[in-house]
Amino acid sequence: MAMAGESSGKNCGDCDGKIAGKSQRKVGLVYDETMCKHDTPDGEDHPECPDRIRVIWEKLQLAGVTQRCVVLGSSKAQDKHLQLVHTKDHVNLVRSISTKQKDYQRNRIASQLNSIYLNGSSSEAAYLAAGSVVEVAEKVAEGELDCGYAIVRPPGHHAEADEAMGFCLFNNVAVAASYLLNERPDLGVKKILIVDWDVHHGNGTQKMFWKDPRVLFFSVHRHEYGSFYPAGDDGDYNMVGEGPGEGFNINVPWEQGRCGDADYLAAWDHVLIPVAKEFSPDIILLSAGFDAAIGDPLGGCRVTPYGYSIMLKKLMEFARGKIVMALEGGYNLDSIAKSSLACVQVLLGDKPIQGSSEAYPFESTWRVIQAVRKRLCAYWPSLVDELPRKLINQKTPTPSILISSSDSETEDDTHRLLDQMSKLNIENHQVDTASTSWRAELAKVDIWYASYGSNMWKPRFLCYIQGGQAEGMKKACVGSMDKSPPKEIVWETFPHRLFFGRESTVTWGVGGVAFTNPLTNLNYLTHMCLYRITLEQFNDVLFQENVLNVDSDSPLFDLAALQLVENKGSLSLEAASDGWYGNVVCLGKEGDVPILTMTCTRSAVEKFISGEIPLRPPAKAYANTLIRGLVEGGRFSEKEAEAYIDNAASKPL
Ligand code: X5A
Ligand code: ZN
């Protein structure tokens, strides 16, 4: 148990920010170098690095706020407290990490877990992180402190009862909440609000209090229909708790990255704050990850220190300001230091730092907030009223396609995405103008988009225009920026071979998907459903079909490309060369309007023939979508449609 430094105990008499006549708030801080010893076994770089808590501490010292706080030494959690939310096995596993003699033994354990590294000091850090949050929470509940901030690592909110994951070993905040409720009835804490503003969903905390009405868990996080870490449905707004805990779990799942102060404050003003008023917590525990901060390499959002300070200030109105912050994620050292300082200044009761949030929330933010309110209004009357039109009309239009069906589940993807995001963060205005200008131009041109795969079924195709998810799809689409439906729909046949190949997709799961050979072959007739849409919308379909996470300041297929395709018949798109449908083929014209389809390249066809890329029949759900399209489009009876698909799927190329 190491001491972080001298406890300054009493506050100076003439601190700045002190409100005359009112004594300054007593703010506890925990920091302990020992928690820096948890690190990657081989010294490899990792975003969850020891410097994270160091830079926060240094920032607070440099700003002179540590002297105004009560600095506490860290303390180790007790096994019996950890076991209030974790299994015995899990506690034993984490404890045993330090007794392992060799890195390879720890590496073997870590490799079984999702996003976890371990070294000889990991157990000690985990015990100190959990124990320190318990300690601060206890002192705040007792009234010895007004509020506090435990600057700890490893973080906790992903850790589940029996599983370490997402850089988290013990669920620090959950242990503290359970300790107050179950071990300290004498302190009179009966209702706890846990606010989790880390950019990731607090899956562990959610599960631990799923059926517990004493804990209201609120998490706001990037979700993107279940593709953002920790991926899946747990972070959905439909997850409201169960049994006596029904209604006491609230998720605000962002549909997109780039959310900033305006989006978070909208979630505060129209969900969290009204519910907190009704719930009236005895104490607030804050899972304070700073990975939604502007500049964070994993989060892709842009909350400013000012934004954090306002969010915190609004929470201070409850529980007589009894609030315990615990660090969770946050991976840009500069951002987490500045954000932490802004928060501690609020805890101290200083005037909030200067700043402004001029931007409006995204359109998608209002959609999410409205959905959350609707889902939860049965439990919280303050959410019943519809939001005024005037309010929700104040919005920043959703940026053009950021990601379609790609997953951000892997770090690689995340980094790739972030490279693009960070550019956007800085030069947002330029990008927005650039992207609006090509859109305006291409919105004036109509084309026929000829579909031969699942898009033949209209409800599925409309997902690419209006966003959402049709039956059989495992994943939703973001849609086009122009959500107007196709102006006309007609069917035609074209002399191109239809076939099925590749292993699986995120949208449909295991099984091949449809392609047509870009080369004409008069021995085959392929049925296609033609949608008359704008060239802007066609680009948005191309982005989504090719899993391109671009907020494109340039189109994939512009007027020059259209000219080329009309002359040459087909054009493979450089920018979509990794996509599966990066080849645009002109099938002819109807009047003035060109008929375009998208498929694989000729070189991919060679690879299908050689077996380098597998030919594979479609999965049931995918095949059914095609069959439905053909039947509802009046092309075939169901039997005929089945035979048509079977035939295309079974004949060699
Ligand atoms: C605490 C936290 C993030 C895990 C991301 C794993 N974890 N890819 O922010
Ligand atoms: Zn996080």
Automatic annotation (TrEMBL):
It comes from the Eukaryota. Its cofactor is Zn(2+). GO terms for molecular function: histone deacetylase activity, hydrolytic mechanism; metal ion binding. SUPFAM superfamilies: Arginase/deacetylase. The keyword Nucleotide-binding does not apply. InterPro entries: HDACs (IPR000286), His_deacetylse_dom (IPR023801), His_deacetylse_dom_sf (IPR037138), Ureohydrolase_dom_sf (IPR023696). Transmembrane segments: none annotated. Its EC number is 3.5.1.98. Belongs to the histone deacetylase family. HD type 2 subfamily. This is histone deacetylase. It comes from Cardamine amara subsp. amara.
